[in-house]
Design goal:
- It contains four helices and five strands, in the order αβαββαβαβ.
- It is an alpha/beta fold.
- The two termini are 18 Å apart.
- The longest helix is centred in the C-terminal third of the chain and has 17 residues.
- Strands 2-3-4-1-5 form a five-stranded parallel sheet, with helices on one face.
C-alpha cells in the first residue's frame, strides 16, 4: 500500500496460485475505496486482463472524451501479454498506452499483477523498467 503513496505504479508479483489477484481485488481495492490514501475513496477501479488484442482492453480509457473520474487501473494476469497469441507489437502498444494513461492523468494509479516467472519480462520495456524502481511488491502464499 505504501508504494502507491509516492509512486503511481505498483507491480504485484508472485508464483502461480500465490493469491496476487486476491490481494489486489479483495484487499487493495477495498482499502483504497475506504480512503486509506488521501482521496482514494473517490478513485474508480477499472480491472482489465490483456488478451490477444490487449490494447482493446484499454479502449474505455483511451477515448477522445475526457475522463472526469480518478481511476485506479488494475492490469491483472499481465503475463498473458507474452502468450503465443499476442504479437510483440501489441504488447509494446499495451504497455505504452498504460504509461501514457498515467502520464496524461487519465489514470491516477496503476497496479500491474504478473506471475513471478514473467516479472523479469517487464524489463523488456525500458520505460516501464525505469518506473518500476520502488514499485515491486512480491506476493507469497
Amino acid at each position: 500500500m505504501g508504494a502507491l503513496v509516492d509512486n503511481p505504479l505498483l507491480v504485484v508479483s508472485g508464483s502461480s496460485g500465490a493469491g496476487k489477484s486476491s490481494v489486489v481485488r479483495a484487499g487493495l481495492l477495498p482499502r483504497l475505496a475506504s480512503g486509506v490514501l488521501p482521496g482514494s475513496d473517490q478513485w474508480r477501479p477499472v480491472v482489465v486482463t490483456p488478451g490477444e488484442h490487449a490494447v482493446d482492453a484499454l479502449a474505455s480509457l483511451t477515448g477522445e472524451t475526457e475522463q472526469t473520474d480518478r481511476i485506479v487501473l488494475v492490469c491483472d494476469q499481465l503475463e498473458q501479454l507474452w502468450s503465443s497469441q499476442t504479437e510483440p507489437a501489441e504488447r509494446v502498444a499495451f504497455l505504452d498506452n498504460v504509461l501514457g494513461l498515467l502520464d496524461d492523468g487519465a489514470v491516477t494509479r496503476c497496479v500491474l499483477v504478473v506471475r513471478g516467472d514473467h516479472v523479469g519480462r517487464l524489463a523488456e520495456h525500458s520505460e516501464l523498467a525505469e518506473r518500476m524502481v520502488g514499485a515491486l511488491v512480491l506476493s507469497r502464499q
